[in-house]
Design a protein that fits this description.
heterotrimer, A alpha/beta, B alpha/beta, C mainly alpha, A: Rossmann fold, four-stranded antiparallel beta sheet, 20% strand, disordered C terminus, C: mainly alpha, globular, Peptide ABC transporter ATP-binding protein (chain B), cell membrane (chain B)
Chain lengths: 350, 340, 313
Amino acid sequence: MNKVKTETNNPRKAEVEQPLLEIRGLKKHFDVTGGWFKKNKEYLRAVDGIDLKVKRGETLGIVGESGCGKSTTGNLIVRLLEPTEGEIIFEGENLAELTGEELRQKRKDIQMIFQDPFSSLNPRMRVFELIAEPLRTHQTHKGDELKKRVFELMDVVGLSPEFAQRFPHEFSGGQRQRIGIARALALNPKLLVCDEPVSALDVSIQSQILNLLKRLQEQFNLTLVFIAHGLPAVKHISDRIAVMYLGKVVELTTREKLFAHPMHPYTEGLLTAVPVPDPEVRDTRERVVLKGDIPSPVNPPSGCSFHTRCPFADEKCKQDTPEFKELKPDHFVACHYPLEGGKGTIQNPS
Amino acid sequence: MSNGKELLNVNQLQTHFFTENGAIPSVNGVSFQVNKGELVAIVGESGSGKSVTSLSIMGLVEEPGKIVGGEIMFEDKDLAKYTNKQMRKIRGNDIAMIFQEPLTSLNPVFTIGNQLREAILQHQNVDKATAKKMSIDMLTQVGIPRADKVYSSFPHSLSGGMRQRVMIAMALSCNPKLLIADEPTTALDVTIQAQILELMKDLVKKMDTAIILITHDLGVVAELVDRVIVMYAGQVVEQSDVFSLFKDPKHPYTKGLLDSTPKIQDLNEELISIKGTVPTPANMPDGCKFHPRCPHAMDHCISNEPKLDTLENGREVRCWLYDEEVMADEQSKNGNEQSP
Amino acid sequence: MSQQVTPEPVPEPQGPAAPDSMKKHQKKSSFVRWMKLLLKSKTGTVGFLIVMVVFIVGIFSDQIAPFGVNEQNYANMLVPPAWQEGGSSEHFLGTDNLGRDILSRIIYGTTISLLVGIFSVVVAGILGMAAGLFAGYYGGWIDTVTMRMVDAFLSIPNILFILVILTVLNPGIMTLIFAIGVTNWVIYARLIRGEVLSVKEREYVKAARSIGTKNLTIIRRHVLPNVFSTFIVISTLSVATTIILEASLSFLGMGVQPPDVSWGYMLADGRDYLATNWWLATFPGLAITITVLGIIFLGDWLRDVLDPRSQGR
């Protein structure tokens, strides 16, 4: 089975354990030429060469604004999209090369939770059927056992059993998301890709779902890839956070380091852009308001793709693409002029 | 009753939606005031009635919804009694509105300039050339680079942030006395949201427009406004100046909302949520509408609906915890059990 | 503030109760439930009654009709309906130019009109549904080929194409059903494909793919049920237009052949007498109108009821 030999020559860390998931040079380009007669093809570079490792049992947060490729990355990991280039190595096996039945079997191990709890559930199926679907698909449970398993799953995500025969439209957003989570857990996956699972929910409900995911992760020893558009959402749940901008990872480190000492100017902009719910500090707090708009991924800027909005950019940034490298232990940044101390927003990370 | 400063006085507003299941009270007796040049936020989650309140003020409630009671005093006119035709003169002139999704609010087949100029021509007595000059001026004011180029471009060629700037320009082009902003930054990326918030802060300083900001995000509220109205299930549950509200929220719902708003500067805060779900009109609880989710709910709350009480320095709260009689009663009933 | 994740039941008074042994519960009450739903809608009830009556008449035409289909009576030619001067209670809707009882002929015609209407829709529906589902779901060359075929079919006038088939093969009921079926599938294919394209993009289809559901299962469980309401609407409308199409073909003499009779055939037959003896063509025409209306009413109601979101309203 092992088509790809796992990389063991990791000089940086004495890490014997192989990561659960490793992404190498992953690219996804969409053809957006439009029209049959254009000579020069145009590509939307949704994901433009990223490398990531996800360790067993950890949560990797992926953060970025619209067009940064975070959702595409999630879809590539669960193979809802075909990668243009690169490798997705899951437990030593390159998912990008799997097809047909092999891939179908592998899907048991990698499940996804979707953003919109209103469109990700078939409106014509009852809760029981929705949760039973993955079990039936892979024929893991039958008859009474299936029934038992479904009610067990409902219990795990906090849905009371009398809901089993209701339709999705009878539920609120938070409860629909619980149904989605129960479906994702049904096959005992090893990796759970959560694509903005709380961004469509009311604020007072969001933490319910985040707490649930956190609890389930401990209970079932799950590994999570948690995608979000803002840092507040990934703050609690992530062990490490990757910040993406225009199809590339620009910074990757532990959440403590990221929040206390962001080294990429974009991360700092993202951090300070979050409104602070305290009117006392609104006129005094330091913030970096990034100028301009996010460029189009069809025609990304030359050199460092962030140079058009960066307060520190110079000629070098316009011409040379910065290398993504480990500047401090466990702290990867792609920037020519990384922030030294890093302003951050947290004074005393403990 | 007007004290000269008051611009808008909404009094016991009731907006119902008439469905096959009967009337659904989306807005159920909402009262509040907005002074000239004041920045007020209406905060609430989905189903709180905050958007329907704003649409009622604009006279934009659509079938099967209808204002069935109360008054909306704008200066000396009761907008609740205005016909559609009369409202058209008010909208865009005295009261303007910006929406969450700026793309759907702009007509895709006309240029930005065309739409902006038309808006100005409709409400102000100027010729075309002046209107164009004013439009470009306005676009520059809302921070659009190369305003004359944007003037002749179509909505789809602009980014979300730019479109929202155009919407703001259009809304402010006629110097409205009141601007209603319905979730103006919700659809935008966080770095763009920061830009728009900065812009709104600047504009507010320059212009004398009162703003009602409709939002679910207490972070945005804290950045921008003077006074906050918290809505839950079609009612105002708390009203306060922004500083007191964030320092010492009175209503358990406000407190819950504040606790569940993530604070980026505190890495190890606990994840706090309000239990349960927002009630739907079909299963609205009796008594206090918040009691099934309230950590301090008492027996009294289950069947008695609290009034909006006035506390010190003009704050208002709709909760039995602040009724001395009820609390004394509860305490004697529960013996030595502690109240919050 | 409470921090635990308390699952709070959404009290939902509208939803059907869900007891443990719910399969049993469903079976027991489903007939009653459907009847209740039906009675809630006025047009649905009317449609249902009309369609039931038409079906019963169609099935038991032999027993119901007072006279034989081709029973001629030269003594009673062109008798007007009973309520008109010169009419007799024996021939309630009058007789035609050969003295045949109009009521009886309409009753016999019901069978043929329904047969043609329903079966040609079944043929067209199955063909079109399959084509639309596969073309829409798989896309690519399957889609291109299917849709070019659809375009080709649509570019030929419908009735001309059927006439050609009918001329080449022998006219008759089976040929008629076949001819209408193979020309009308394109309507289904086009509309269903469009629906599939939109359903396919919904997140729950993506969700099903992510758990490893096979394509055919996705089509069957996720795509088909969600395009089915569209299918029902086209089908009911199509039964109606097919009855009319059959009438026009019979009117042109290429449809039902004597001794069989259909409403359209009667319509064609009575054409020459419209000015003098109006009842020959009017009553079969009325039969078509009422039946078509009934089917459309029923179809509209079905579409609403099949949507789970409408349940409990």
